[in-house]
Amino acid sequence: MSDGRKRAASRRRVDLFRELQEKLGFAYLAVSVALVLLIAGAVYFFIFYQGILPFTRYHLSLGEFLSTTWSPLGSPPQYGALAFLYGSAVVTLGAALLATPLSLGAAIFVAEIAPRWGDRILTPVLEILVGIPSVVYGYIGMRLLVPFVREHVGGIGYSLFTAILVLTVMILPTVTSVATDALRAVPTEIKHGSYALGATRWQTISRLSLRAALPGLLTAVIFGMARAFGEALAVQMVIGNTPRFPRSLLDPGATITSVITMSMGFAAEGTLEYYVLWTLAVILLLMSALSIIVVRLLGRRRVYA
């Protein structure tokens, strides 16, 4: 065989090997994507299937589910979850209202006022706060905040208000980090143009940077609210875990996550109480999906585009 034929045969083998590599790589990626979609679809299907059984198999009405009485051992049993829905909404909104101003101020300081030494100080602190397990937050809240609220604010200490304080500290790092990234994403040229027109630093921050970064700042708040809405252990340790509908922030209460974690181990499989807990899990899943959709929609908005 001549040298030319040998080189041609060698090139064909190389081409075939590359083609085989591309096909194997494509097959690997296709299988990975299919598995991810299959797992996500299976999780959604299983939770939704379990969650609709109280209404289809046991004929629980929506009015009964949205009542304020939760008494699985009563005669007759009652499965009103409105108190848990209310508790989750109140602690989530309360934590967001307290954490947003603090997080926004810290983000502005790091991104606009003192980007060098402020970043060196605040970033490690945020990383430490993110790395603290939720049970530690709950234990600190139970040992420090509960007695403080009981002695200086009112009530028995275990309350919605205490849960709000714990969640505020827990979501501060998340909201601050995302808000800082949003402010840093504002093009420097826009800020220089504002200074060139005679604007002060505060005018540039308040009238330009904050407006340009508004979608990212809203995303930060939504991420924090999603974290607060889905938190279970820390809230469970300080909220009081009572099924009664709270009349004030100083009353004990319960959230969707706390009642699921406390009741799932005692609810017999196949009972109405067992499936009602899955219905509450469906609500958590829908809230998570809604937050993701809102974040994606906000991510498409570019005020400075």
UniProtKB/TrEMBL annotation:
Keyword list, A-Z: Cell membrane, Membrane, Phosphate transport, Transmembrane, Transmembrane helix, Transport
Known role: Part of the binding-protein-dependent transport system for phosphate; probably responsible for the translocation of the substrate across the membrane.
Subcellular location: Cell membrane
Top-level taxon of the source organism: Bacteria
Biological process terms in GO annotation: phosphate ion transport
Gene3D superfamilies xref list: MetI-like (1.10.3720.10)
Organism: Brockia lithotrophica
NCBIfam families per the UniProt record, alphabetical: phosphate_pstC (TIGR02138)
Record's keyword annotation contains Membrane: yes
A cellular-component GO term for this protein: plasma membrane
Major localisation: membrane
Cross-referenced InterPro entries: MetI-like (IPR000515), MetI-like_sf (IPR035906), Phosphate_PstC (IPR011864), Phosphate_Transport_Permease (IPR051124)
Stored PROSITE patterns: ABC_TM1
Family: Belongs to the binding-protein-dependent transport system permease family. CysTW subfamily.
Transmembrane segments: 26-49, 83-109, 121-140, 152-172, 212-229, 274-299
ABC transmembrane type-1 domain span: 85-295
GO molecular function (one): phosphate transmembrane transporter activity
Pfam families the UniProt entry points to: BPD_transp_1 (PF00528)
Membrane topology classification: Multi-pass membrane protein
Protein known as: Phosphate transport system permease protein
